[in-house]
């Protein structure tokens, strides 16, 4: 059998011979060079897809080629390369100047003109655009304005997609005409799908079982009743237009070809980006001229005129956030105006205006709800946490008021951040409770893990008073939990332990130990151990399960809290039968009914979602009340332990190091928490080893002791010696020459040098892991892959610790030997010896950097030489 090319399936010829450039065997190893080049260009790969061998091409030179290139050819190639570099530099400079200079500056000047509130600012806008005052500040402010504007525009587009795919509210959409449902199933408008979805939602899947709460939202039935009451008239013309729009949209989707877009993207080379950048700049400037008035100008002035008319201008100015509050008030008034105009348009049957006003109202409504959910609610939680913890830090409301007056933006941001952390951990704890408790116990809380849960769809469909009621209930619940777990424990601690509080949170310290070292221990040792370990969550889950079982058996609520295994199995079998019966009786929805209708039909077949039946004991309400009381007492005791035990242990341990000096309670609490974590971890490990017998325990203790000894040796070398040498070298090369004059003696602090060395070592390790493959990266990756349990002490010492320590010692000792041993032998003056001794480290660093640059330039010149030779 003749050899053929595996791409074009042709035989080899003298003009087009066959090659086998990879390690593949058999008939697939042969290929033409032209076919290989074309395939590599198409696949954008440099290796064989079968054997993973990287292809290499060797240039073939003419027999009469000279051994060295002429000078004029080298000079011409060098000039060509310089010209190409200048062209690209000019292109990138133009792009950077446009996007970092022209566009932000234009945005900033437009915003200043709009919010000045005078006609003269509009008349002088062209001159202000060309002004050179405050260029840097205006560019930075303009970048922020452009970013916010683009984010707002992208959010509007995304919200439109949510409305299109998820459906608009019933009061905005109209039911499709009957002839659409009869003859146009395949191209039905989205309104038809929404109608099917709402009808399906109004019909309960199965009657709920006794003592059962169906679903996770207690307000679902109220929503359905409210949606049933909101009925609107049907318009045939609107339905026909919607169906036609849907047909056109479907045809556009079918005619869309991804390959054409890919081909256009491939043809868009760097040389053509100049025109694209120019078009983008023109579009961006046009966008900035039209979008800001709609986004901020109109709501701001509406709110401003309203506040001035109502006499609240002074109160708003005293808040230090006049612009933000005025804009939010303007949006609220704009939403009220839109809903009133929507009602008037409905009465006079202006269908297109009615829909446009409704969509605008939805946009404003969702925007305000997002601000409330993400901005206002965490801010309230943060301030409430601060107010309830004032006695813990020996602070007063007057102190908080003074801090707010001095730095309002920073104060509000810190309180918002604390509130966000509180909300996040509360939601995480609720998710952990759902993993333990019976499905259906937390029916009054939304399930964030539910794949059907979409907060944006809820913002679109639910009325505004429902969101307001949820917001008030959330504030009450979160505020009550703060009172229970923070304010009340603080009062109890002050009564039982008068000398324990307040916590020391001063930013200064009179301790002899550097604050930098303590911060380093906190950031590099304590927090990674507490945050990166999954044991803490498992321990908390185990405690919750144990508490739930205890409370269930004490109050006879085990079936309600955890469910019954036998009943769950019977319920699962019955559920399978119900599903099979539903599949036999229910028809599959057609495509025209929409994805949501099909999804609702699937939910109907499955019966009640997120619920398990339970046995209801006697005096059930009383038992639930006792359960809540027991839960409050448990949370109070847990809060007391968390507020006292870690801090007490940390203070006791820190006293051996710092004596009677006061340390920031962040360090003492972190140290005590870390010790508690280590203790609990050791106890859990011993408990897990207990069933295996005494011999196995001794063997495990021996293995762990050996592993701990190896880890300590590695820690001393890599976390002690290497950072100390690295920090000392940095001090000699950078810090001392810049900060200490020649007539003064530099002082070195080992603790600070070690702390800085740890940071520098982590930065160097991160850069090494992100860089190209070389011996240090290979060794670090191997050590990281082995982990602590499979630690190889010999490999680490021989491959990592010894080379790195040797290089650092040579870098420290060689300059010192030259300055202190060689230079005095030359007979120079004492001033010259001092100068050499103080400047030899940065001088040698400059020499090393210069040699590296020269080596890099030599390699680049060799590549240029080969490139010129290959082109010739």
From TrEMBL:
Please give the biological process terms from Gene Ontology that the record holds: ERAD pathway
Could you tell me which pathway this protein works in? Answer: Protein modification; protein ubiquitination
Q: Which GO terms describe its molecular function?
A: ubiquitin protein ligase activity; zinc ion binding
Task: Name the Pfam families for this protein.
Answer: MARCHF6_C, RINGv
Q: Which domain of life is it from?
A: Eukaryota
Principal cellular location given in the protein's record:
endoplasmic reticulum
Assembly and oligomerization: Interacts with DIO2. Interacts with SQLE.
The protein's name in its UniProt record: E3 ubiquitin-protein ligase MARCHF6
Organism of this sequence: Callithrix jacchus (White-tufted-ear marmoset)
